[in-house]
Design a protein that fits this description.
Number of domains: 2
Oligomer: single chain
Strand content: 25-35%
Radius of gyration: 18 Å
Largest sheet: 8 strands, antiparallel
Number of helices: 9
Strand order of the largest sheet: 4-5-3-2-6-7-1-8
Length: about 230
Amino acid sequence: MALSRISLELPSRPLVKAGLLPHAFFRHNESVEILRVYAFQPRERMLLVRVTRSGPRRSRDDIARQRESLRRRYGLRDFEIVEVGPDGRTYTALLRQENPGILEELLEELGAGVTPTTPTVIGRERATLSFLADAPAEKRVVQLLGSLGIRFELKSRGSFRTGTAMGADLTARQREVLSLAWNLGYFDIPARVDLRKVAELTGLSRNTVSQHLRRALRHILQESVG
């Protein structure tokens, strides 16, 4: 069934009230952008996010020193700093939720056919939620928001085609592992993380992660160099 790329704009308050973000989040931050959602283990979500802070400028070391307090404050199982912007007010982090909470509940309720995508940005007042969905799934999203009493505006809806981009034939797991390794800096020179760290975060064995990466890269190289 054909997929559409859909973006909705709605008030942030109902999302915070529902538990998608802790109430304390906006005491220290302006917004959070969800860059990628990973699901390596059952009933567990890892989010790659970009946070814009409202407080004073912080270095990577400053934020790293706060890692444990941030993890406890937001009820996270894991909190990994990926990158800190040059302005010291934005940082990219990988969050693993201790309890998947409202995100997991929403995805379970919406069922197959809904995939969160960018841009999904939650600010102090307004939020943009973006996702890929087939027609029945889009209808379920609208019905769910209506049942929660959340008013929204449709920002955009466009067709989404699969199978045309390089690497389109990768399995979902290969794509997830490759994306995570790329975003964490596994392919940087020098590498920012090693295979052990990628495996630790996914809950998969190093051998399994290595095989996913090698098969994904082999497929992409076959497409590019024959």
